[in-house]
Amino acid sequence: MKTTNSLMCILFGLAATLSIGSPVCGAPVALPANLSGAGASWIGVNASFPGRSVIADGNISGQGDAYDGALALSINSSGVIFPATGDLTGSTITTDATTNGVFSTVGEYFASQTVPVLRGLFSITNTSGSIATANISMQTNVGADNSTTILGTSSGDTTYTTADSWAILDDFSGGGDPTTTNVFYGANASETTTFSSTTVFSSAGTQGVRADFDLAIAPGETQRLMFFLRMDANIADASGYTGTWDDMSTLDAAGLLSGLNATTQSQIVNWSVVPEPSTLLLGALASLGMLVRRRWRS
User: Fold this and answer.
1) According to the model, what pLDDT value does residue 20 have?
2) Which one, 64, 130, 230, 244, has least CB within 10 Å?
3) DSSP for 186-224?
4) How many domains would you assign to the chain?
5) pTM score
């Protein structure tokens, strides 16, 4: 039996918030729905596209047609289609769960109110009694179509590869479609892109970015993948923000981890959790204690 986030809120209250880490206790919402913040509009969140759920489009500063379907998830080549029901809490939409084989998946979409960024968090739970492997493909089709150009990547060039944790795309800077930043993983993550491509599913063209991940998920375990989209009017604004994509600490400083508790963050495999200063201090003291004891014995 599928349990919705709304029912979980009623049954578990605070306990659900502590264990799930997503904004529960929101109002039921019919999907797709729109999100907005910091001048950006994210149109048709959880729109139904043949074979997958997507964010239909986006616009900022009078520039539209950012996407022809963003954050399309597939598991083992099967497109993930979330139910047309979920919860809306503030600027966060959380879908009800869907099933792909042995995997139960939930999508969560958070629109920042301070910067034109959308966070997509996808929680994948192995419901079987044995370890299950999941090839996860995340694809975004951009509205620039045949005029799509890669304007920048994390490695400093204009070629998107598995070595790139982010890529900036546009038709041309300062006009036409919005400049879009696509963020796939952070520094020191346990899971990074195993396959990349600028060819994605067909929707008014096949131009965009694709990032695949290969996960091994234990019985009953939940692993999460977190991605970011950003829209800007030009490449200068997009490039000036790329330092935010370094790691979890820079994301946190920008307010982009809002609503995610420590348990949730620890389950995000394509980003590395930064230890609390107290944890680092305890580790340093333990190492120092061991060193002193060894010297005393000698």
Assistant:
1) 39
2) 130
3) -TT-SS--SEEEEE-S-SSS-EEEEEEEEEEE-TT-EEE
4) 1
5) 0.86
